[in-house]
Amino acid sequence: MRWLWIDQIIELEPRKRLVAIKNVSLAEEYLHDHFPPGDGREALPVVPASLLIEGMAQTAGILVGSASNFSHKVILAKIVTARFDHEVFPGQTVRYEARLERLDSAGASTTGTVSYRPSGSGASAGSWLELGSVSLLFSHVGKSLSGLAVPEHNFVFGEHLNVLLQTAGLEDLKLKK
């Protein structure tokens, strides 16, 4: 299964930072298994940390790819650090802010902050609470060492990325085929 783990790009400073959000809904299937009721306890739907990392990787990957107008394929090479101090539940919104630390012909390094907006009537529209941080390394790829093209099906981003860019008003950026 391939999917975008962000719903909207809300800010882009080219070659510097990108901010994206994800609205967490109880309608998302993975929440029904994480964690289901059992042993006398009620269900506790929580967003797994691995999906929070995926959201940051996609946000940072878009930032890295956009620096070259998506002329290079970008792959996640390493999760340097990932720290989360709270859990995310349905009804909350997650905010990913990725910052470009280094960019060269081999790849890029990024750092990022993950925040969330609590659900409920007491949450102010502008109040984001820090959830954690993620540092990532990316590689640029084209052809493999054997000279063979890297298969397209190995990449998360496809036509859905172009729709995401368009809805953010970034029509001038477009994923290259």
Describe this structure in words.
The protein is of the alpha+beta class and 177 residues long. The chain has one domain: Thiol Ester Dehydrase, Chain A, CATH 3.10.129.10. It has helices at 49-66, 159-167, and strands at residues 8-13, 17-23, 73-84, 93-103, 107-117, 129-141. The protein has a six-stranded antiparallel sheet with strand order 1-2-4-5-6-3. The protein is globular and about 55 Å long. The chain starts with 7 loop residues before the first strand and ends in a 10-residue tail after the last helix. The model has no long low-confidence stretch (mean pLDDT 86).
Keywords:
2 helices, 6-stranded antiparallel beta sheet, 34% strand, alpha+beta
What is the structure about, briefly put?
15% of the residues lie in helices and 34% in strands.
CATH architectural label: Roll
Number of strands: 6
Oligomeric grouping of the chains:
single chain
* Radius of gyration using CA atoms only: 17 Å
User: What is the number of independent domains?
Assistant: 1
Largest beta-sheet characterization: 6 strands, antiparallel
H/E topology pattern: EEHEEEEH
Give the percentage of residues in beta strands.
25-35%
Task: Please write out the topology.
Layout lengths: L7 E6 L3 E7 L25 H18 L6 E12 L8 E11 L3 E11 L11 E13 L17 H9 L10
Antiparallel strand pairs: 1-2, 2-4, 3-6, 4-5, 5-6
